[in-house]
């Protein structure tokens, strides 16, 4: 750590206006060239299905009075919104990696991508916790459920989740981009994410790495300690797919393993794609609502 600090301080002394980075080059995922077309098609299909699946859940919860009157389904509908946008922030950049198009992203674009990625991702984390807490109350406190969890409280908790996500990303983005970047500008990753960008900083990143470790690490690991997650298999499945890769990447800030990109695909691409399937197939009320919507359209 000391040698790295000295090296970064030495780099800082040589910064000039002529060497300030104005854009970054996203190197993307590593893949065999002969699989380029197949991977393009796979990620394109995943993106389309992710958008359609989450949009269907969102519209179903909104249109069916039986669903949007219950906190559990309100939370499910709200979760679909960041799922759709998170996929839109990440997957198009991955798809671009399989084309001859330029891999450059302006400095401002990198800031925006990192901001929305962590804003939506952290909000998802808080929503998962709320959904698990709701299921815990419904299963373990059924007689008091309507008192402990109602529509008004659910709305307040959802608003707090979005505010908490905003606070989290404001701290992370500010700490990341207040550092000087004087080159190189090649990000060895498929998006602008904190660990990959920090490796290019021309200053000591010890504080950043510590804040990232504490902030993301505590949030991720503490969720597994909550008894609420043990009451619902679907939540446990989603949270495992989402949090385990996060822990693998963010609790190892100095890692340069080529596996990091492949692992990150799970929580950035696979989880938003699987959420509609997991929650729909395991939720009889949502399936019944989908059947009613289909029957209504057919009847028309």
Automatic annotation (TrEMBL):
Similarity comment: family membership: Belongs to the G-protein coupled receptor 1 family.
Keyword Transmembrane helix on entry: yes
Superkingdom of the organism of origin: Eukaryota
Location within or outside the cell: Cell membrane
Cell membrane in keyword set: yes
Membrane topology category: Multi-pass membrane protein
GO molecular function, one term: G protein-coupled receptor activity
UniProt GO cellular component terms: plasma membrane
Family annotation (SUPFAM superfamilies): Family A G protein-coupled receptor-like (SSF81321)
Record domain G-protein coupled receptors family 1 profile: where: 53-300
Stated name of the protein: G-protein coupled receptors family 1 profile domain-containing protein
Residue ranges crossing the lipid bilayer per the database entry: 38-62, 74-95, 115-133, 232-251, 263-281
Main subcellular localisation: membrane
């Amino acid at each position: 750590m000391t040698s790295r600090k000295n090296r970064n301080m030495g780099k800082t002394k040589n910064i000039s206006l002529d060497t300030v980075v104005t854009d970054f080059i996203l190197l993307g995922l590593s893949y065999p060239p002969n699989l380029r077309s197949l991977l393009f098609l796979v990620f394109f299909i995943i993106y389309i299905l992710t958008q359609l699946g989450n949009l269907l859940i969102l519209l179903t919860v909104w249109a069916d009075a039986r669903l949007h009157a219950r906190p559990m389904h309100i939370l499910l509908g709200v979760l679909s919104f960041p799922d759709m946008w998170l996929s839109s922030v990440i997957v198009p950049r991955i798809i671009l990696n399989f084309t001859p198009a330029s891999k450059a992203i302006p400095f401002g674009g990198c800031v925006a991508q990192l901001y929305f990625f962590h804003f939506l991702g952290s909000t998802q984390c808080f929503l998962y916790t709320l959904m698990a807490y709701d299921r815990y109350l419904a299963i373990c406190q059924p007689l008091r459920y309507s008192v402990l969890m109602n529509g008004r409280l659910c709305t307040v908790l959802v608003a707090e989740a979005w505010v908490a996500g905003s606070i989290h990303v404001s701290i992370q983005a500010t700490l990341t981009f207040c550092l000087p970047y004087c080159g190189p500008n090649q990000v060895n990753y498929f998006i602008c994410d904190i660990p990959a960008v920090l490796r290019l900083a021309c200053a000591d990143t010890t504080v950043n790495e510590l804040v990232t470790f504490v902030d993301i690490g505590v949030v991720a690991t503490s969720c597994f300690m909550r008894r609420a997650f043990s009451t619902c298999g679907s939540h446990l499945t989603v949270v495992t797919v989402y949090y385990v890769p996060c822990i693998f990447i963010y609790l190892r800030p100095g890692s340069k393993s080529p596996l990091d990109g492949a692992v990150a695909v799970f929580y950035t691409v696979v989880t938003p794609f699987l959420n509609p399937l997991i929650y729909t197939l395991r939720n009889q009320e949502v399936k019944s609502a989908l059947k009613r919507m289909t029957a209504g359209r057919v009847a028309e």
